[in-house]
Amino acid sequence: MSSQKLIVIVPMEGTALLDIAGPCDVFSRADKILRSDPEWQGAGYEILLASPVAAHHLKTQSGVEVVCPVTVEELDRPIDTLLIAGLGTEFLANNLHGFYEWLRNVYPRLRRIGSVCIGAYALARAGILSGRKATTHWQYSQDFQEKHPDVQVDTNPFYTCDGNVYTSGGLASGIDLALALLEEDYGRELAAQVAKKMVIYLRRPGYQSQFGELLDYRHLTNTLAGKLHPWMIQVLHEDLSVERLAAQVNMSPRNFARVFLRETGLTPAKFVERLRVETARKYLEDSDLSIEQIAEKCGLGGMVSMRRVFLRHLSVSPSDYRRTFRTALHG
């Protein structure tokens, strides 16, 4: 026996529809199963969308409009779990002081609170993430850390938990988080049952790092790395020592290494390794070359060496990466 839990999801103008719909689908499917089981009479979930602003109609990133029956200020019932579903670019730029103040005040009365994707910004602005571990979409890792240095940001995991505060990464990670919350409430068996019905993993293998870029090419313009990049791509299979890289731009190895580190934040050796992994990823996604051939073309040694490097950078083996990200047309 258990009482029904009120799940309040706060959608944001301009956020991705999946940030909202994903958790809603998990909790609604679980509720349907619980209602059909006499052992769980009275249990389950009620899902309520609450607008963070006065408007009840909010347009998502895809143009689909969601309707919120209430605003957060109109909520007058005990909330079990509150989830901030994403944060559109307009909301990301604006300081919604009234909403953040409401979050600060309501948080002590909640059993748990969480965010999907960059909804973590709202929790951070409300001071709820201060001193805590958190994650957000991998693309916003640096920006989030710069804006909120008091938060311990790690954008590798799909979701994190610190006390009763939960944060999840990009888009589909909201589903991962919702399944974890469901398992916490009603056990693994029910969570697995919901995952099967949705044809998804109960726990997805890997980490967000599989999706992100290891090198930020936007910041390589007018740097040594940017000048060397086209040539390095052609000779990745060869030895790319500091001495050889320095000779290519007519610099001493010591001065080259110092300037390179200052410009990129990486040593030449680490940059070369990341470039090799990034190139290997493209071959795994788009080509029919064997892993052994890719390892050789990219200067990653053999299969064993390539596997070790992939696990270190992406937390996934080359073969698993190919199965997950292979171009759809390859089947």
From TrEMBL:
CDD domains: GATase1_AraC_1 (cd03137). The keyword Transcription regulation applies. It comes from the Bacteria. Coiled coil: none annotated. Pfam families: DJ-1_PfpI (PF01965), HTH_18 (PF12833). InterPro entries: Class_I_gatase-like, DJ-1/PfpI, Homeodomain-like_sf, HTH_AraC, INH-QAR. SUPFAM superfamilies: Class I glutamine amidotransferase-like (SSF52317), Homeodomain-like (SSF46689). Keywords: Transcription, Transcription regulation. Residues 226-324 form the HTH araC/xylS-type domain. This is GlxA family transcriptional regulator.
